[in-house]
Here is the input.
Amino acid sequence: MSSLSLAVRDSTTMVRRNLLHARRYPALTLNVVLTPLIMLLLFVYVFGDVMSAGIGGGGAERSEYIAYIAPGILMMTIGTTLVGTSVSVADDMTEGIMARFRTMAIHRGSVLIGHVAGSVLRSMISVTLVGAVAVAIGFRSADATVLEWLAAFVLLTLVALAFTWMAIAVGMASPNGEAAGNNAVPLVILPFISSAFVPVDAMPGWFRPVAEYQPFTPAIETLRGLLLGSEIGHNGWLTLAWCLGLAVLGYFWSKSLFTRESR
Here is the structure.
C-alpha cells in the first residue's frame, strides 16, 4: 500500500473513531448546538429591541438586528466546539491511547488529522443547524449570490480549521481533560468580545481595541459582507492572515507535542 493510501485509510478510521466518540456523549454534542441557539433566541427576542439601538444610528428594527447578529452567532457556533475538542484530545493523551498509537503501524499524522477533521465536521454541521434556525426566525440574505454563499461556507470552514488546530494544541498541552476545558475557554470567549452583537464603533473607547484586534471580528465582518452585501474592506485579508497564522501555529505546536515522549 502506498504512503498516500495508508494515510487516507488511517485518517478515515480516526475520523470515524472521533465521530463515534461524539455519538457516545450526546449531551456534549447537543450543548455545541444549543448554546449558540439559545444566544440567538435570547439576543433576538429578549434583548433585540435594546441591542438594535447600537446599530443603524439607533433606528434599526428587530429584523435588521437578526441580519446583523446571525453571522456573529454562526462564528460563535464554531467557538462552542473548541472546548469539547480540547477535552477529547487531553483525554486521549492522559489515558494512554496516544502512546499506543505511537507504537502501531499507522500513519503518524492520521491521529491528529482524525481529531481535526472530526471537529471541523461537527462544527460545520452545527453551523448548518444554527443557520437554518436563523433563517426560520427571519434572517434573509437576498442579495448574496451563489458564489458569495460558497465563499461564506469556505470562510466558516477555514475559521473552524484554524481554531481547531489551536484547540488540539491546547488539549495536548494540558495535564488532563478538566484543565483542557479551562484552558480552551479563552477561545470560546473571543466571539463575545468581538463585533458579533454590536458594531465596534458603538463600544467604549477603552474596550474597542480588544474587540478590533482579534481574529473573530474581521472574520465576522467578512461573513457579513458576503451574506449582507456590506463593506468588507481589509477584513478579508486580515481573516485569511489570522486563519493561516493560527493554523500553522496550532499544527506545529500539536505536532511537537505528539512526537515527544508520552507523559
Summary: Residues 158 and 240 are 8 Å apart (CA to CA). The first helix runs from residue 3 to 24. The chain has a mean pLDDT of 83.
